[in-house]
Amino acid sequence: MKTFLKVFGGLVALLLIVIVAGGVLLGMFFDPNEYKPEIKKLALEKGGVQLEIDGDLGWSVFPWLGIEINQIKVSYPGKPQLAELNQAQVSVELPALLSGNVKMSSILLDGLTLNLEKGQDGSTNWAVSGAGQQTSGTVETPTPSAAEASGGAAIALDIESIAITNGNISYIDSAAGSKVLLKNFTMTSGKVTTGAFFPAELSFQAEQYQAEQKQLTVDAALKAGFFLDLANQQYKIKGLESTLGLTGAPFNGKTVHVKLNSDISSDLNKETASLSGMSLSAANLIASGDVTVTSFSKPVITGNLKVAQFSLQELLTALGQPAIETTDPDVLKAISFNAELGGAPNTLGLNKMSLQLDDTQFNGNFAMNLASGAIAFNLKGDELDADRYLPPAKEQPAQAASGSAEKSSGYSKEPVVPVELLKGLNMDVDLGLKKLLINGLTLSNLELDTSAHGGLVNMSKINADMYSGTLRNSVVIDVRKSPTRFHIKKNIKGIQIGDLLKDMADTDRLTGTFNTQTDITAQGESVYAIVNSLNGNSNVTMPDGTVKGIDIAQTICQGFNNVAALGVNADQVDRSTPFADLSSNFTFTNGVVSNNDLITKLDAITLRGRGNVSLPAQNLDYRLGLTIEENLFKKTCAVNNNLEGVEWPVNCKGSFDTEPAKLCRPDASVLKELLKQKAKKQLEGKLMDKLGGSGGEGSKTENAKKLLKGLFGN
């Protein structure tokens, strides 16, 4: 046995001597530069690339297996130059490599320039059509061995240092008119070993162009300690400090500094990765948190995220953006956010989410399926004064006087419904707010429930409580088939119209309980199509109420008496008008709104209305009629018996652009008929007196009627 070991040892020693001797002889008698033509030929035949080797090649075999390359250019035949390298040096200690370890001297890569170009026709300079592809058959992917699948034998690294300097990469897309440059790429490291932290630094500048105009410049720098455990597939980054300086058109000349600090670790065998002690800052925005990911195939994400209180207005200024104009200049200055990360596998979940917007607190949850992109969002708030966030009121420029109103040009036929966007929605949203102040109105218990999947958007709840009443609305938008279909339901019940008008218009002229139910459908993608396809019905009721500040019945009564000279003026006593039973039904037929049963009772007067409003034609033909009835509530004005039961109509007819004074006019034929009847009776009396001596009473009356018929035509 000892003899065998001696023989084996002698053979190994002899082999090492041969290798050393061979390396020395190769270095002394074989110059690699003599093989440049053959290297270039093989590169073209095997790889389809053209090599230009302008510098020297050098190699060594023992004890360092090394190579040195200088001034090389690479391109595909007939294509712009792809890459250029000034110098590369790398050497591996051969005895260490034979023992399964990698021990290198310093790795140097200097002056690497990579030019990627995409032409107008989509062709590129980094690939040739068909290069490297088999002409027939299918390409079989080799099945990795068990050793390869498990990562193979662990390799111990020992590299003195790594230096990559003067790196430059450019990408030009002629079709898109864009260009991206990565310049002055530099990376340096200390001694790289496995199982211990080693320092490394990286920096570069990047520029993005559009149509030869520079849009964005990025200055980046990174440094950290890196840990590699190849045997256990564990990798760590400690004390990561990275900074970005962003300048360009999006920031209007401002430079935005972004910083990220964190510790990062990963265990590939256990499929875990974590980001701990993260701190991300951009201008005055600071976010912090910890994130852990397990099971990479269907990741489970846990941790926490916090955004410290910041001013949105200050952030916008730092980003070179205009501040948001608000009625209250003190809003948008105290915003913060925090949440816990967690949820089902393959889901990004924000639990116990809290958002502070100035004085308003929101709480809820958010979840997004990473595979399908489906979103589930739940957010509930307490009290929000939206008027503070609205833009300040501005004086409207005075309109030039015009002798006639400009006629509307009609409804646009351009699509306004974002069909593709709605088809892509995959979400369920539940929003709520206890109290909302907006445009002087106060709403409470707001609810908005929406589901949108596969082109069907169902806003099942658009609800609120307001002014002792309720709003219960829903909208369905279906874009699964063309044309788009809409179904809208509105149910407003018990709204105290007086309180509403006080807040909305600062007026106290009307009281009553307002109710309405509406159910309409429409279809199309343009305003024109939607308006022309409105179909459905609506019902409006106000069972009781009062018009304050004027006694309408008395005023109209006196007007009738004065105009017809049929009575005397009376002093107004009650300066209000109660009304009852205001109700009406409206029918929508292809955009035409029809109403034939409008009715309300104003004290001793009944108001009726009927007619059509055509939204497509933008005109109306509506008739309002006032009828003096037997006193319904109280007597405030006495009228001639001839006026009771007579309908006094007002005809409203014309286009939406017609001046109001010309749109509605009273029907004077009724007054003419009353005056005609009065004159007829007065004349009949006079004739009766003159015909008093001719025959009996019946004969005199008949003769008078015949004479009047000839005079008045009836």
**Strand residues, percent:** over 45%
Helix coverage percent: 10-25%
Q: What average pLDDT do the residues reach?
A: 80
Question: What gyration radius follows from the Cα positions, in whole Å?
Answer: 44 Å
- Structural class, from secondary structure content? alpha+beta
Shape: elongated
Question: Can you give me a brief rundown of this structure?
Answer:
It comes from Amphritea pacifica. The chain is of the alpha+beta class and 714 residues long.
Task: Give an overview in words.
- This protein has 714 residues and is of the alpha+beta class.
- 18% of the residues lie in helices and 49% in strands.
- The chain has twelve helices and 35 strands.
- The strands form two sheets. It has a 32-stranded mixed beta sheet that branches. It has a three-stranded mixed beta sheet with strand order 5-8-11.
- Strand 12 (197-210) and strand 13 (213-229) form a beta hairpin.
- The longest helix is centred in the N-terminal third of the chain and has 28 residues, at 2-29.
- This is AsmA family protein.
- Residues 1-598 form the AsmA domain.
- InterPro entries: AsmA, AsmA-related.
Any chance you could write out the topology, listing elements then pairs?
Layout: H1 2-29, H2 36-47, E1 50-53, E2 57-60, E3 64-75, E4 83-93, H3 94-98, E5 101-104, E6 107-110, E7 113-118, H4 146-149, E8 156-159, E9 162-173, E10 178-189, E11 192-193, E12 197-210, E13 213-229, E14 234-248, E15 255-267, E16 272-282, E17 285-294, E18 300-310, H5 312-318, E19 335-341, E20 347-357, E21 360-369, E22 375-385, H6 419-424, E23 426-438, E24 441-453, E25 456-466, E26 469-478, E27 485-496, H7 497-505, E28 510-523, H8 527-531, E29 535-548, H9 552-564, E30 576-589, E31 592-602, E32 605-614, E33 619-628, E34 647-655, H10 660-663, E35 664-666, H11 668-690, H12 697-712
Parallel strand pairs: 5-8, 6-9, 7-9, 22-23
Antiparallel strand pairs: 1-3, 2-3, 3-4, 4-6, 4-7, 8-11, 9-10, 10-12, 12-13, 13-14, 14-15, 15-16, 16-17, 17-18, 18-19, 19-20, 20-21, 21-22, 23-24, 24-25, 25-26, 26-27, 27-28, 28-29, 29-30, 30-31, 31-32, 32-33, 33-34, 34-35
Helix pairs in contact: 11-12
